[in-house]
UniProtKB/TrEMBL annotation:
Keyword Oxidoreductase: yes
All residue ranges annotated as the FAD dependent oxidoreductase domain in the record: 36-389
Organism: Belnapia mucosa
Signal peptide: none
Record's protein name: FAD-binding oxidoreductase
Keywords: Oxidoreductase
Family matches, as SUPFAM superfamilies: FAD/NAD(P)-binding domain
A Pfam family of this chain: DAO
């Protein structure tokens, strides 16, 4: 019998994979050449392949794991437009200037609208619903930050963000831990594993070849502007190259690796508790987050029978059984009514942060890239993949505003985030200073 909080039959894998597991890579037969080679078979890479295919260019998508195996099928499935852009940093205007931030916000809002149109146009089976997003304020100072964030979002012209006072938090969720919050109307949820599976099917429909189980070892640019790729399955020549490896970027692309901070994010799924009880905990069935440094994100499952809960359960590479117990403690501290509920699944996936906490798209020595979703990946990576395809095709009427951002790194950083445990301790201290307290195990 499983020890609480683990249900009998507990699984160390994403709950999403019960409905849409990544396909086992077939024996790879690598072609000699490709018009465009895309490294990374997640949302960004597949979105690039779809947009290229719609314009008559057939892409070859390679991934060292199964197509869609990474964060693309492991994430929380929550999405928004400009609301996601303002999530990780509150000093956008100070850092980049009002006019440029307005461009970024406008593009992000447009990306959300385009995403909804894209899902409808391609008939993607992904359980998408526009449900809104509630962000809980963990301290009074956080309400001021949310006020500034709402103003920034509404200044983009949508007027879809508003503050929720403390006495109305109960309308959004069954907790007394938050001092208020912010509601975003233009936000939604989907089933990420179904989404990436549908993207893969659409990419193949537009002529792309998808090969999982093929690892890029190195690449070089040729005098004619093309590329030679050395892979685990042989050599390949490509006219164009796109890097879309995000949180799983390795040593084969060291320039990109030096600019990304891979951070493990953890999730759990509760056992089925029924829609009535889910609604008691989360009455509006939205997607949810908070303002803490050690943040939480959570939502009902797509069938509304269980609750999915994620966060930074550890700043080292923890096993998912241990992280699952930690997340269960976080969940029941936030929503005490769920104290008796067990968990059936626990998993983790890598999120990629940039040093400036911004998404990035561009070109380095001829190779295109789209990466650094900073924890808001579904809409962002879909949009940046499509924008990268426009740059590859050379016919984009309006290049992405994100392409004008420098992609910074730090001296002596090689891609190993040795500093994360220190950052984690400082985040925990900041949350405690703000008054947030979570009982220890057994306390």
């Amino acid at each position: 019998m499983s020890e609480f909080p683990f249900a009998p039959g507990f699984l160390e894998r994403p709950w999403w994979w019960e409905a849409a597991p990544p396909p086992a890579p077939p024996p790879a037969s690598l072609p000699d050449a490709a018009e465009v080679a895309i490294i990374g078979g997640g949302i960004a890479g597949l979105s690039t392949a779809i947009e290229l295919g719609r314009n008559g260019v057939r892409a070859l998508v390679l991934d060292r794991e199964a197509i869609g195996w990474g964060a693309s099928s492991r994430n929380g499935g929550a999405l928004s437009g400009a609301g996601g852009l303002g999530k990780v940093r509150s000093d956008l205007v100070e850092a980049f200037g009002k006019e440029y931030v307005s461009e970024l916000m406008e593009e992000s809002e447009g990306a959300f609208e385009n995403f909804e149109a894209f899902v409808a146009r391609e008939g993607l089976d992904c359980d998408y619903v526009r449900c809104g997003r509630f962000v809980g304020a963990h301290a009074p100072s956080a309400m001021e930050a949310l006020k500034r964030r709402a103003e920034l979002i509404n200044n983009a012209g949508t007027e879809e963000a508003f503050l929720v006072p403390r006495d109305r938090v109960a309308e959004e969720m069954a907790t007394d831990r938050f001092v208020g919050g912010m509601m975003l109307r233009r936000a939604g949820s989907l089933h990420p594993a179904k989404y990436v599976r549908s993207l893969a099917a659409a990419a193949e429909r537009y002529g792309a070849t998808l090969l999982g189980g093929v690892e890029l070892r190195s690449y070089r640019r040729e005098a004619d502007g093309g590329f030679v790729l050395e892979t685990s399955h042989g050599r390949l020549r490509a006219g164009k190259l796109m890097i879309a490896t995000n949180g799983y970027t390795g040593g084969a692309t060291p320039w990109h690796q030096r600019r990304l901070i891979p951070v493990a994010s953890y999730m759990i799924a509760t056992e089925e508790i029924g829609e009535e009880r889910v609604r008691r905990a989360l009455p509006k069935l939205r997607v949810y987050g908070d303002t803490k440094k050690v943040l939480y994100y959570f939502r009902p499952s797509s069938d509304y029978k269980r609750i999915l809960f994620g966060g930074r359960a550890s700043f080292t590479d923890a096993d998912v059984r241990r992280s699952g117990a930690t997340l269960h403690r976080f969940l029941t501290h936030l929503i005490p009514d769920l104290a008796d509920v067990r968990i059936t699944h626990s998993w983790k996936g890598n999120v990629a942060f940039a040093f400036d906490m911004m998404p990035h798209i561009g070109e380095h020595e001829g190779a295109h890239y789209a990466m650094a979703c900073n924890g808001s990946g579904v809409v962002t990576m879909t949009h940046l993949g499509q924008a990268a395809a426009g740059a590859i095709l050379g016919g984009a009427n309006r290049p992405s505003a994100f392409a004008r951002l420098d992609f910074p790194t730090k001296p002596f950083y090689t891609g190993n985030p040795w500093f994360l445990p220190v950052v984690g301790l400082s985040y925990q201290l900041r949350d405690r200073l703000d008054g947030w307290r979570v009982p220890k195990d057994g306390g």
